[in-house]
Structure formats: structure tokens, C-alpha cells
Specification:
The chain has about 80 residues and is an all-alpha fold. Helix content is about 85%, strand content about 0%. It contains two helices and no strands. The longest helix has about 40 residues.
Length: about 80
């Protein structure tokens, strides 16, 4: 029983030290860094979606429409 109580005490002290160190830690990510990351993600996403839209509307969809018309235009 004493061993068990001693191990519980050691674990609680260890957890207490870990929590104290985590709360005392002043390193952190600033708001500006996060805003720049979000802005970069939005801009890159918009460019990617714009490129896909141009690719589909100019290249893929007209070809697909033509193939579908040829497939159903069977006069045999």
C-alpha cells in the first residue's frame, strides 16, 4: 500500500511540474503569423480553383460534350 501511495505522489508531483512548466511557457505563435498563414491558404486555394475552372470550362467540358453527342448520335 505504501509503494502505491508513493508512486501516486510521484506521479502527481510530476504532473504538477509539467503543468507548471506549460503555464509558464511564454513562447507562442503570434496573431500576425496565423493571419499570414490563413491569407496564404486562401490565395493559393483561390488560384487553384480558378485554374481548375479554366481547365474544365475550356478544355474538358467541350470535348466531353462532343463525345456524348457522338455517342448518342447513332444512326445504324
Amino acid at each position: 500500500m505504501r509503494k502505491w501511495l508513493k508512486s501516486i505522489k510521484k506521479k502527481s508531483v510530476s504532473v504538477g511540474v509539467t503543468v507548471k512548466n506549460a503555464l509558464a511557457n511564454r513562447r507562442g505563435e503570434g496573431f500576425v503569423d496565423t493571419a499570414v498563414k490563413i491569407l496564404m491558404a486562401v490565395v493559393i486555394g483561390a488560384l487553384l480553383l480558378g485554374g481548375l475552372y479554366l481547365l474544365f470550362s475550356g478544355t474538358i467540358l467541350p470535348t466531353l460534350t462532343q463525345r456524348i453527342r457522338e455517342m448518342f448520335n447513332y444512326q445504324g
